[in-house]
Amino acid sequence: xxxxxxxxxxxxxxxxxxxxxxxxxxxxxxxxxxxxxxxxxxxxxxxxxxxxxxxxxxxxxxxxxxxxxxxxxxxxxxxxxxxxxxxxxxxxxxxxxxxxxxxxxxxxxxxxxxxxxxxxxxxxxxxxxxxxxxxxxxxxxxxxxxxxxxxxxxxxxxxxxxxxxxxxxxxxxxxxxxxxxxxxxxxxxxxxxxxxxxxxxxxxxxxxxxxxxxxxxxxxxxxxxx
Length: 226
Prior knowledge:
- By secondary structure, the chain is mainly α.
- The protein has helices spanning about 1-10, 15-35, 40-50, 55, 65-90, 95-105, 110-120, 130-150, 160-180, 185-190, 200-225.
């Protein structure tokens, strides 16, 4: 561990620093998948990459900045996957769009976890520059989604898609938390039939709600034109 930490301190080139940041982000990503974002500390991340906590702070100001960076990367990766899926859809319409949103989000548990934490605490414990960079990254990631959705449901405006994306990611973040309680709570839900309503499947529920949302937005747009 000490040798690894010393080697980290000696690196000085821009490329070496980028590699360190990438190593830190990858360690945080792995720990987040394993434990959940809430239970990963800055010390945990530092230990995973063989660094002292004080050394890690040379690259990221807080654990929240690390996870906010991962959230921004998640937005871009999700945008690419969702946009490609929508462009390939053979049955355009609200239900197909909703299924694409729900399926791609439900398949990305870490991203859903990050989505829930981003507005609650990740954005609140970083610099204004970090918040600005994050918001610009999410805006850029939303643009190809907007184009792909409007190609499938032409009645929707750009603002309609902004609202749809906001609804989708907010619900996905919240639903993932509900669907993934602690082990003891999950066992309680399974043991008591009266608590069956607390056990949810993210993808079908999200798809149903988003279908209704898209249909409603399209109907509202049609009504406004009439």
